[in-house]
Write a structure and sequence with these properties.
alpha/beta, Helicase, Ruva Protein, domain 3, about 50% helix
Length: about 450
């Protein structure tokens, strides 16, 4: 190939003569070739061989080509697979393509056709990998930071689930990073070359959600002055993230369920069925079981979406990740705001680590960005006290943050209790007496908010 790079091809065929013929052809063209005689051997050797592309026979004894393809897509989704068969049919080609084959060629393979197909497969995969690398570099905010056990488990689950076509339901509190999980699932899937389509169901009025999802025809309703392509059509061949699906109307839920079951949509005001190939990832901060009990969410849609449940843990359950997150957000904020690099004291990190972070990673990101902007060089625990914890403008700062009412109440209570404890020199009994609450209750609040006396 023109780049001068030697590309490695893995041949998988139980006929020695086919392997020999293909090996001669490919080696003459400068490819490095490895071959095995079964799907099982291919799966066993793939990590050792590390091929750039795989040529796979469909009809083999034991594990056939389609079954081998399925396993390869799960374990190595970005290695292109070209299927070969002596019994070609449209049905087999369609099945192979749906299961992730790059292309489908008949035996005996035409020399020029197989060379063109391999080069296109390797080139497209190289572009895809470079696109993913650049996207991750540009979209630094999509990096999942943390080395805690729960984060390792989360990343392992994503790696296992992403290459499949299974629907996923992501749950977790506000600000935990459910969107990051959805994007990671898409980036590591066989659909990664297409754009992830996102819909925030809570941000769209109920009367417009169906038009947003399924599109509409001209004149379908007042204001429909032209045809509109909905999110399901836009996501054809890709992934659709239905964010905050717990806020979707029951009417829209019924239509989404029908699309998921039938693989086709009808635009609002239209009568034509349009086939769509969409992988759906749904996310919510609500307890959908409770929503079902209260009649706000369809149980059948819940079970259809909840094929793979993924729960994103709150920040309080992975406090060991906070130092890494702080330094990551400092670097990110300095770059975004064109500021010199910022340093932070260990005492300041410890102070931030002890906060309750009811707004989770989103709240921490906002707090760190404020510190990066407001502190000219070295961030100390005094700066944390002034700009994040309990300085004179602490509540004003909280008002400017992206907090729910409950999160703001927690922040106000935390600031109030810290001030009172400091007022009485951290004498818990006296503070409880002055506040008119039980000492055990105050201890619970101290533990809830991670309140600690300055050293």
């Amino acid at each position: 190939m023109s780049s001068g790079t030697t590309h490695k091809i893995l041949l998988v065929d139980d006929e020695q003569s086919i392997r020999d013929t293909l090996r001669m052809t490919l080696e003459y063209e400068g490819f490095e070739v490895a071959d095995v005689d079964s799907g099982i051997r291919a799966l066993e050797k793939i990590d050792e061989i590390r091929p750039d592309a795989i040529i796979l026979d469909v009809k083999m004894s034991g594990l056939d080509g389609i079954e081998t393809l399925e396993r390869l897509r799960e374990s190595h989704p970005h290695i292109p697979v070209v299927l070969l068969t002596g019994h070609g049919s449209i049905e087999t080609a369609v099945e192979a393509t749906k299961k992730g084959a790059f292309d489908f060629l008949s035996k005996p393979p035409d020399r020029e056709k197989i060379l063109i197909t391999l080069r296109n497969a390797i080139r497209q995969t190289a572009l895809l990998r470079e696109n993913i690398r650049m996207r991750e570099e540009i979209e630094g905010r999509d990096v999942m930071v943390g080395s805690s056990a729960v984060m390792k488990d989360l990343r392992a689950t994503i790696a296992r689930v992403a290459p499949t076509e299974a629907f996923v339901l992501i749950t977790g509190e506000n600000g935990t990073g459910k969107e990051l999980v959805a994007r990671a699932l898409h980036r590591q899937s066989s659909r990664a070359s297409r754009e992830l389509i996102e819909v925030n169901c809570a941000a769209i009025p109920h009367e417009l959600i169906e038009s947003e999802l399924f599109g509409h025809e001209k004149g379908a309703f007042t204001g429909a002055t032209g045809q509109r392509i909905g999110k399901f059509e836009q996501a054809d061949g890709s992934t659709l993230l239905l964010d905050e699906i717990g806020d979707m109307s029951l009417s829209a839920q019924a239509k989404v369920l029908r699309v998921l079951e039938e693989g086709a949509i009808e635009r609002v005001g239209g009568n034509k069925r349009i086939s769509v190939d969409v992988r759906v990832i749904a996310a919510t901060n609500k307890d959908l079981s409770s929503e079902i009990s209260e009649g706000n969410f369809r149980e059948d849609l819940y079970h259809r979406l909840n094929v793979i449940p993924i729960h994103v843990p709150p920040l309080r359950d992975r406090r060991e990740d906070i130092p890494d997150l702080i330094r990551f957000f400092l670097a990110e904020s300095s770059s975004k705001n064109k500021l010199p690099p910022r340093e932070i004291d260990d005492d300041a990190v410890d102070r931030l680590r002890g906060m309750p972070w009811s707004g989770n990673v989103r709240e921490l990101r906002n707090a760190v960005e404020r510190l990066a902007i407001m502190v000219s060089d070295h961030i100390t625990s005094t700066d944390v006290e002034r700009y994040v914890l309990g300085g004179p403008n602490a509540l004003d700062n909280s008002l400017s943050m992206d907090l729910s009412f409950q999160e703001f109440k927690d922040r106000a209570e935390e600031l109030f209790l810290r001030r009172q404890l400091e007022r009485f020199d951290w004498n818990v009994s006296r503070t409880a007496d002055e506040l008119g609450i039980q000492r055990s209750h105050l201890y619970k609040k101290i533990n809830k908010y991670g309140l600690e006396r300055d050293s």
